[in-house]
């Protein structure tokens, strides 16, 4: 399998310890309190600070109380938050939300939660949501693994998207990579049967690692149409008639830089098996 190269795009995730004990569908996982761990989890995101512009702050003040929240110590009531019952998709590390907004507008039948730690990036997405009147996006600020472990019920997600996670290219930093076997096992537990994990990266070494980890998870099966985007072309990664979510992504500024640098993009998509 041909796999490719990626630059760092910090995400709002971290490498977890062992996933929660799987519970019956609809049950919520037991809280793992990070502060009480003997060995705190090594996070995959860098701490970054940045001030909001005046217009961003104004939009944030209007919209965040409705569409945003900090990662909390309570089960997520997505139906109540969105005001409707619809298939739920989580995007881990949504950044400034270019792909998030475009995919939400293309799939109005889905409820989409974007998770990010970088507030100025979230503020840009909040502005776009307000400007374009996008009503099927909600946002969470904090560690996405905490969200998956402690807020999301088993077998409740239709999709999880992870686009261009930080590859942490130095060998001594590989432990910081988000997509380790424990994280993928946790995602698999939270996906419903037929749900999809969609990953994109332009870092060759990380792509090889993600492929091995995904293929080793017994509850996931790689979709046959998910050849490398660079080799297959975007048409072969678009949504087919049976997929519960779309696979086509807009090309962001970050991805455009990767293309100009000659980096190929790898798309890796797995489906949760009904066991």
Characterization of the model:
By secondary structure, the chain is α/β, with parallel strands linked by helices. The protein has one domain: Vaccinia Virus protein VP39 (Rossmann fold), CATH 3.40.50. Helix content is 31%, strand content 17%. The chain has nine helices and eight strands. An eight-stranded mixed β-sheet has the order 1-4-3-2-5-6-8-7, with helices on both faces. Helix 6 links the parallel strand 5 and strand 6. Helix 1 crosses helix 4. The chain is globular. It starts with 53 loop residues before the first helix and ends with a strand.
Radius of gyration: 17 Å
Net shape: globular
Count of folded domains: 1
Mean model confidence by pLDDT = 81
SS-based class: alpha/beta
Short description:
By secondary structure, the protein is of the alpha/beta class. It is built from nine helices and eight strands.
């Amino acid at each position: 399998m041909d796999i490719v190269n990626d630059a760092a795009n910090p995400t709002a995730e971290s490498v977890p310890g062992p996933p929660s004990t799987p519970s019956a569908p609809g049950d919520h996982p037991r809280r793992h309190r990070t502060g009480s761990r003997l060995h705190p989890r090594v996070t995959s995101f860098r701490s970054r600070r940045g001030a909001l512009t005046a217009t961003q702050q104004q939009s944030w003040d209007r919209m965040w109380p409705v569409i945003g929240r900090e990662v909390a110590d309570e089960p997520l009531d997505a139906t109540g938050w969105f005001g409707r019952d619809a298939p739920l998709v989580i995007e881990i590390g949504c950044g400034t939300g270019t792909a998030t907004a475009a995919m939400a507008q293309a799939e109005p039948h889905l409820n989409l939660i974007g998770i990010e730690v970088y507030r100025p990036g979230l503020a840009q997405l909040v502005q776009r949501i307000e400007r374009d009147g996008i009503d099927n996006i909600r946002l969470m600020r904090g560690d996405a693994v905490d969200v998956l472990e402690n807020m999301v019920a088993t077998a409740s997600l239709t999709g999880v998207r992870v686009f261009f996670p930080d590859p942490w290219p130095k060998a001594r930093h590989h432990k910081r990579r988000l997509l380790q076997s424990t994280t993928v096992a946790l995602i698999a537990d939270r996906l419903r049967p037929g749900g999809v994990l969609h990953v994109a990266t332009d870092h060759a070494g990380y792509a090889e690692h993600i492929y091995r980890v995904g293929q080793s998870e017994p509850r996931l099966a790689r979709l046959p149409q998910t050849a490398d985007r660079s080799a297959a072309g975007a048409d072969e990664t678009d949504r087919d008639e049976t997929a519960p979510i779309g696979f086509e992504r807009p090309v962001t500024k970050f991805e455009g830089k990767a293309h100009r640098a000659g980096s190929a993009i790898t798309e890796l998509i797995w489906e949760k098996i009904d066991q």
